[in-house]
Sequence to fold (310 residues):
Amino acid sequence: MAEKNGPVSPSPAKSSVRGEAKAKTITERVMNGVFFVCGILAAVSVVFISLYMIFSGGPAILKIGIGEFLLGDVWNPSNNQFGILPMILASVLATVVSVLIAVPIGVLVAVFLSHIAHKRLASLVRPMVDLLSGIPSVVYGLLGAILIVPMIFRLQEALSMPTGGCLLSAIIVLVIMILPTIISVSETALRAVPKSYYEASLGLGGSKIQSIFKVVVPAAKSGIVAGMVLGTGRAIGETMAVMMVAGNAVVLPEFLKPVRLLTVSIPFEWAYSSGLHREALFGIGLTLFVFIMIINFALNSILKKGVKSA
Fold:
């Protein structure tokens, strides 16, 4: 008669596999918890900032009057006149024009770096673009005040309106400032498009340029729009550089005349503000916050519609 076998102990290999699987499960749970906490913190931060801006700037807007605050064209704190329409128009005009100029240039440079330039040349240009994105804004403002404002001043003299800093100077500086962001994000999006798209287009008889602009660029549209959103946010939120080149006059904007953008009024007048004046500065901050939210929602909705239609 065969002897009864005792309980079979698991082999060391199976125990090792089970231990690794258990460790992976624990790691995944921990990381999921970390990601969840980070997401909650991000959402809570946005809600907290939104509520803080509403409770800080909202009362001043109500005291002054929404129509008077947003549509008034006179900003004179000494006489309790707080109309920010010239600043709103200057900010919107500077942002829109700078983005319209920078986005095509940035996308073309990104296409050049990702698909046209030789690898050595691209490896030289790419770090320079990254370096430009890390330069402090005050340096851009200083270079704008030294180089761009004098050139614009000569143009103003030729037109018999010498005023120095103006909206055009601010637009040029903003274009230079937001270009690195648009280039970097757009190039990353273009390089993320599978090479098979490009190769398939070439195989169907498309030229190199046709394959890039009719296949690769549309496929990278979401990343390009993300770069546009980031560039727009930086343009509308820039302070120091435009303060040094725009002239800081609260008047209805013209390209060759001094203007003051919304962001400039807060640091420009914060040190000596008090009472309703300081509350009005919070109101300007709330207005900026709302503008950026509207821009983000609008661009994201346009992008989603484009994806659905495609």
User: Anything to note?
Assistant: The longest helix spans residues 12-64. The chain has a mean pLDDT of 86. The CA atoms of residues 10 and 294 lie 62 Å apart. The longest strand covers residues 75-76.
